[in-house]
Design a protein that fits this description.
This protein is an alpha/beta fold and about 475 residues long. Helices cover about 35% and strands about 15% of the residues. The protein has 13 helices and 19 strands. The N and C termini lie far apart (about 70 Å).
Length: about 475
């Protein structure tokens, strides 16, 4: 046990015996007080004496004079805690919070139960490091193991890792893994144009060495051209798809599955909105070899694009090529259930070109939020949220179609769809923002040819009045 006492303006540790008395034998060690305030002049003298110097100036004597600042930095004066809070409160008023947002396009707002931050915020979970020492990390390791179990159930795959950075890097890691399994042969990497452009950028960054092998597959409307896939799949090593895609459209995975099964290509999938798996089969059910996704929707708020974590699942036969971390269940010396990092050592991830991944950690804290959210919802609650997302977006889609002359996507979508207007969609977003809400995402910011497309996202947070107000607003852009 540790007790603290205030003494001469500092806090000191004092070991306490089980009966409440101080442990005299430890007195010498506790004199090194644990301070929470800056050092005073006496402290500076003591430190300089300990390292054999006469002044602080002498401490920095090795820094060339031309590189040293000759005058005090132009910092504002120190503020009290009250003043600092007032300063930030004033800054927050510079960016008004919109009353409602219909923006999605890869980052989605969902209701997060209060139990999520309550448990996630416990200090024992707050570590940025991978739990290499199982004897002191059983709680975190079990949480990761339970997450892996749920990830397998959602994706309908046999194996999941302990999460990677985000959906885009998960997809890129999936393609690299597929190339390792294909022994880096000379086939094409077929990538659907319906994949979010940001994901495409990350994929190209990861696969710079294979840049000449990447072939973009054209679209038919807002979905992947199955004809183009069929024409090119015989010469392909990897096929890369995303569903729901950048337009919120659900790709025809049954058709893609038939083409992949009749080829030698590995199929890597991506999902930006994993709540879609509450109403759709997981890609593993269609035969996808590697399933990746963005986990931000689970337990993580949409703060400036994050926090997030990447979902990565595959088949048991590819276990040795799995990137990132894997937690397994075992028993200890007393035959009690326990958990360990398994089938890989840390050294495996720092072997450069021979590594299965250069990811030396995982998104523990963000993944934990996702796990708590999913466990709180349960199987029935998860499907209910997914159904609410689908029904509300369908209501809004049909409302816009029936009450405006705007062109609305006719394809099957989940909780996101696109409309087209006669003018640049960015003007619609700007006008809505000036009125205190965000009507969607102007896809022209991603690709110039999509300049008149507006992506609209609706979920369990949007009520009828908010959606009807959006329709009334959009009527002026017919």
């Amino acid at each position: 046990m540790i007790a603290t006492e205030a003494a001469t303006g500092t806090f000191r540790e004092r070991p306490v015996s089980p009966k409440g008395g101080s442990t005299a034998s430890s007195e010498s060690s506790v004199e090194a007080s644990m301070k929470y305030i800056p050092q005073g002049k006496d402290d500076e003298k003591e430190l300089l004496k300990a390292i054999g110097l006469k002044s602080t100036e002498e401490l920095f004597s090795n820094i060339p004079s031309q590189l040293r600042i000759k005058k005090p930095l132009d910092y504002p004066r120190a503020q009290s805690e009250i003043e600092i809070r007032q300063t930030f409160e004033n800054l927050s008023k510079l960016s008004p919070v919109p009353s409602v947002s219909f923006a999605g396009c890869g980052v989605y707002s969902h209701y997060i139960p209060s139990i999520v931050p309550q448990i996630q915020g416990r200090s024992e979970f707050a570590t940025a490091y991978t739990p290499y020492q199982p004897e002191i990390s059983q709680g975190l390791l079990q949480a990761i193991f339970e997450y892996q179990t749920l990830a397998c159930q959602l994706t309908e795959c046999e194996l999941s890792n302990a999460s990677v950075y985000d959906g885009a890097t998960a997809l890129a890691e999936g393609v690299l893994m597929a190339l390792r399994l294909k022994k880096k042969s000379e086939g094409k990497i077929l990538v659907s144009q319906s994949i979010h452009p940001f994901y495409q950028e990350v994929l190209r960054s990861y696969c710079t060495v294979f840049e000449d092998r990447i072939q973009m597959l054209p679209l038919e409307g807002d979905v992947l051209s199955l004809k183009a896939l069929e024409q090119n799949i015989e010469s392909a090593d990897v096929v890369v798809t995303q569903s729901p895609n950048i337009f919120g459209v659900i790709e025809n995975y049954s058709a893609v599955s038939k083409l992949v099964k009749n080829s030698k290509a590995f199929w890597v999938t991506s999902t930006m909105e994993p709540f879609a798996w509450g109403v759709l089969r997981g890609p593993g059910a269609f035969g996808a070899h590697i399933v990746t996704g963005e986990g931000q929707s689970f337990g993580n708020a949409a703060y400036l694009g994050g926090s997030s974590f990447g979902i990565f699942a595959t088949r048991n036969e590819y276990l040795r090529n799995l990137p990132g971390r894997l937690v397994g269940e075992t028993v200890d010396q007393k035959n009690r259930r326990s958990y360990v990092l398994t089938f890989a050592t840390r050294e495996q991830f720092i072997r450069r070109d021979k590594a299965t991944s250069n990811i030396c950690t995982n998104q523990n804290l963000n993944m934990l939020a996702g796990l708590i959210h999913l466990a709180t919802l349960g199987k029935k609650g998860f499907r209910e949220v997914a159904v609410q997302n689908l029904s509300r977006s369908e209501y809004l889609k049909n409302k816009i179609r029936s009450e405006t002359k705007l062109k609305v996507s006719s394809a099957a979508t989940f909780n996101e769809f696109t409309i087209e207007s006669r003018e640049d969609a960015s003007r619609i977003v700007e006008a809505g923002t000036q009125q205190g809400f965000i009507p969607g995402v102007a896809l022209g910011s991603l690709r110039s040819e999509w300049s008149k497309k507006l992506s609209i996202h609706a979920n369990e947070l949007h009520d009828l009045e908010q959606m009807n107000s959006l329709v009334r607003f959009l009527k002026s852009y017919e």
